[in-house]
């Protein structure tokens, strides 16, 4: 068939066959456990984030993701990373499978080769993921593909391995289809026979934690949370394109890993350690036994573009950070928060004092993607210090460099002031523009709007501030850290015009224009967060 270079052709066929077996293995693992840390490609994906140059990681997590979002695709950066991880995992597993075939098989005993190949795949999947379900899924599926290859191609083999003889099959289309079908059936059968064992268990555990409606166990007064949520929502403006005041299920996510940690509350604990007089550990039940507080808190990622959408708000319920910290009696001024996904961030302890350790969001069990069973909320600070899947609060006497700071970001401090413009509505003779404004705990004093490209300015109407949570002092009427909406209605101009928005924070500071005109105004997110005036060119 390939008279010029049969050896080369054979090699190419072996590589293809190995890839097919590897992909089957990856698929089998996925069918067994889903997109979880125990999926074989997950550790590869995490390792990629750690070994790739920082610029590439930044590009993938920030630029590519924003680009994807502009096309309506969520998490494009993470998806690209996952695809690469799947390719690498497939290459590795396939290589192992075919190596096993050659090692154990020879021509006389091809089935022994299949067994050795499948075992190699399963054992390596087990070593990498620690999950028997994932390993059995991978081994069974790769094995199914290997055995199909051997059965179909082995008979036509003139020499060499069954895989190599793939080149000898010229009328192989039907056979190939048959092989794929057999591999698929084999995978499904294998996975449902063996894999579902702990796979289903993991699923059930996650289901319990993820369901969000299972808050019977939570000591939450849902009367209070629904009242606060209703009150907040009633303060929202209704302008086309404008998001609400409570983000709920539309809350953004930013994660260093593709597969979120799958933490079971029963196996989880939180330790308070380091430079403290009294180190201690808390179980999930200990935490629920404490006094619950509810707070509206806004999060904004330092990688959010100026008029981007990585800024959201919800009602969080949990325990006050100050109460937990007092018990430990800290002897240092810095805190490192560590999480189940290997993530950690450091910031001044004083910033944590008004904060919260939340086990619920929107009156329901904290969803897995937002950090179940427990996450930190650090008022007025960039999203990155709001560590999810929290496992450890560590006090330090000296500053430490956190995960994103190692990659060049400066995102552990207070947020920049921002006013977004997402809502545009055209009425009879008038136009309305609207958005959200946020300045962390400084609060928003006013938002100013120009409809002539910045020549003249008018004051926008602000939504009423969100209600104070139950953790505030009785005098506090308002949420300490939550955004507000602004809206501005004006006479519809005849022509295309430029609308510009800028906010003044509660300390009276107007945000800088950006564009280098103000020394601290940088419109790009990297490295310290985007700030500057948002503008939009609108048709009447
Ligand atoms: N454990 C852990 N915590 C984390 C992250 C993470 O990847 N792992 N991402 C951080 C970043 S960069 C942001 S902006 C916020 C986002 O929180 P959300 O996903 O609930 O919106 O979580 C922070 N906490
Ligand atoms: Mo972030």
Automatic annotation (TrEMBL):
Residues 261-404 form the Oxidoreductase molybdopterin-binding domain. Pfam families: Mo-co_dimer, Oxidored_molyb. The keyword Lipoprotein does not apply. Residues 503-525 have a biased composition (Basic and acidic residues). Gene3D superfamilies: 2.60.40.650, Oxidoreductase, molybdopterin-binding domain. The lineage of its organism: Archaea, Methanobacteriati, Methanobacteriota, Stenosarchaea group, Halobacteria. InterPro entries: Ig_E-set, MoCF_OxRdtse_dimer, OxRdtase_Mopterin-bd_dom, OxRdtase_Mopterin-bd_sf. Keywords: Membrane, Transmembrane, Transmembrane helix. Residues 426-513 form the Moybdenum cofactor oxidoreductase dimerisation domain. Residues 503-540 are annotated as: Disordered. It comes from the Archaea. The keyword Transmembrane helix applies. The chain crosses the membrane at residues 82-104, 111-129, 135-155, 176-195. This is Molybdopterin-dependent oxidoreductase.
């Amino acid at each position: 068939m390939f008279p010029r270079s049969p050896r080369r052709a054979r090699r190419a066929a072996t590589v293809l066959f190995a890839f097919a077996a590897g992909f089957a293995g990856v698929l089998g693992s996925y069918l067994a456990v889903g997109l979880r840390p125990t999926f074989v490609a997950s550790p590869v994906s995490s390792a990629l984030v750690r070994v790739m140059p920082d610029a590439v990681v930044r590009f993938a997590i920030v630029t590519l993701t924003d680009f994807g979002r502009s096309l309506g695709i969520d998490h494009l950066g993470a998806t690209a990373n996952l695809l690469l991880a799947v390719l690498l995992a497939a290459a590795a597993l396939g290589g192992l499978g075919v190596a096993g075939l050659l090692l154990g098989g020879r021509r006389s005993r091809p089935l022994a080769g299949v067994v050795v190949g499948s075992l190699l795949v399963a054992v390596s999947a087990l070593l990498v993921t620690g999950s028997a379900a994932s390993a059995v899924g991978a081994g069974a599926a790769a094995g199914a593909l290997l055995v199909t290859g051997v059965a179909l191609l082995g008979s036509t083999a003139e020499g060499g391995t069954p895989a190599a003889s793939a080149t000898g099959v010229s009328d192989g289309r039907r056979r190939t289809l048959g092989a794929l079908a057999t591999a698929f059936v084999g995978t499904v059968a294998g996975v449902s026979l063996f894999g579902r064992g702990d796979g289903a268990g993991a699923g059930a555990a996650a289901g319990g934690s993820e369901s969000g409606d299972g808050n019977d166990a939570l000591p939450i007064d849902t009367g209070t949370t629904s009242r606060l949520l209703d009150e907040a929502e009633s303060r929202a403006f209704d302008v086309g394109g404008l998001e609400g005041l409570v983000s709920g299920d539309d809350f953004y996510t930013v994660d260093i890993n593709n597969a979120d940690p799958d933490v079971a509350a029963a196996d989880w604990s939180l330790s308070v350690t380091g430079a403290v007089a009294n180190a201690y550990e808390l179980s999930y039940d200990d935490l629920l036994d404490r006094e619950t507080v509810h707070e509206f808190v806004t999060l904004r990622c330092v990688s959010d573009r100026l008029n981007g959408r990585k800024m959201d708000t919800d009602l969080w319920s949990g325990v006050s950070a100050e109460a937990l910290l007092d018990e430990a009696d800290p002897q240092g001024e810095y805190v490192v928060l560590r999480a189940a996904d290997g993530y950690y961030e450091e910031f001044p302890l004083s910033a944590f004092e008004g904060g919260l350790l939340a086990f619920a969001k929107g009156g329901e069990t904290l969803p897995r993607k937002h950090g179940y069973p427990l996450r930190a909320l650090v008022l007025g600070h960039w999203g990155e210090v709001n560590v999810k899947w929290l496992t450890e609060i560590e006090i330090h006497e000296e500053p430490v460099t956190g995960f994103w700071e190692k990659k060049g970001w400066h995102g552990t401090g207070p947020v920049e002031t921002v006013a977004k413009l997402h809502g545009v509505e055209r009425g009879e003779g008038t136009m309305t523009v609207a958005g959200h404004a946020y300045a962390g705990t400084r609060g928003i004093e006013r938002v100013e709007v120009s409809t002539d490209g910045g020549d003249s300015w008018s004051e926008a109407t602000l939504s009423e501030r969100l209600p104070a949570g139950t953790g505030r002092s009785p005098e506090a009427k308002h949420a300490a850290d939550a955004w507000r909406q602004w809206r501005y209605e004006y006479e519809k101009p005849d022509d295309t015009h430029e609308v510009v928005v800028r906010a003044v924070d509660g300390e009276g500071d107007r945000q800088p224009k950006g564009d280098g005109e103000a020394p601290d105004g940088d419109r790009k997110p990297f490295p310290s967060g985007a700030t500057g005036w948002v503008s939009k060119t609108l048709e009447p």
